[in-house]
Amino acid sequence: MPERNQSASLRRALAVLDRVRASNGLTLTQLAEAVGLSKSTVLRLTVPLVEARLLERDRRTGAYRLGHGTLELGQAYLAGLDLRAVAAEESHRLVAEVRETVHLVVYEPPHVVYIDKVENETNVRMASRIGSRGPLHSTAVGKAILAWLPDDTVDGLDLDVMTRRTISDPARLRTELASVRRRGYSVDDRENEPEVRCVGAPIFNHTGTVVAAISISGLSSRITAARVRELGPMVAAAASRISGKLGGSSR
């Protein structure tokens, strides 16, 4: 019986903490009403939360807010994250759904670096290698990142022509990046390799900074222009879920 009571108290305390998290500050009366408990019960539950610095109480207004302890927990969680591990579930899910190759890259100015690759074994292998570098302007993963970098980043890039479809004019590239921001995903339409199309989306960290990107890649005979419109929202949704696990959100 005591263990059951302790479990119930813990669940109530967590409910109190979650309600405060979702607000800009709640008084004892407001908090009690929000969780459906008496003020005396809520007061008892908040004592250890305040002691652990998970909650703090404004001395002037009496309102409860999240304490510094929650920041320390969040930082410890983020420090322990490995991007490849965080993204692995989404990468394998995409491969299972679309039967194409999925790439994960990080941004290392002025390039992207491929840190993971999940392939559909039945298709032709992509030439990309883990650890290799790629350009920002001609790859889907690169454009997905570039679209959320400062506008003058384009000025510092060498817009090398990789194929006859590569966008090498800064003005055209900026127009393309504006389209990426509007739709939430980028497209490499045979711009980096002559027979390959890719669709990519940005990944944001807990500060809202773009740090990585994920893409679906395949031969243009399989990833047609019509299929791009189907794959775009899928890769954008996967990137958003990865961002969420990193403490960030999609734009």
Explain what this protein looks like in three dimensions:
This protein is α+β, with helices and mostly antiparallel strands. It has two domains: 2-78, Winged helix-like DNA-binding domain superfamily/Winged helix DNA-binding domain (Arc Repressor Mutant, subunit A); 81-245, 2-Layer Sandwich (Beta-Lactamase). The chain has helices at residues 2-21, 28-35, 39-51, 68-79, 83-98, 140-146, 170-183, 225-245, and strands spanning 55-57, 64-66, 101-108, 111-118, 133-135, 186-189, 196-204, 210-219. The strands form two sheets. A six-stranded antiparallel sheet has the order 5-4-3-8-7-6, sandwiched between helices. The protein has a two-stranded antiparallel sheet with strand order 1-2. Helix 1 (2-21) crosses helix 3. The radius of gyration is 23 Å and the shape is elongated. The model has no long low-confidence stretch (mean pLDDT 90).
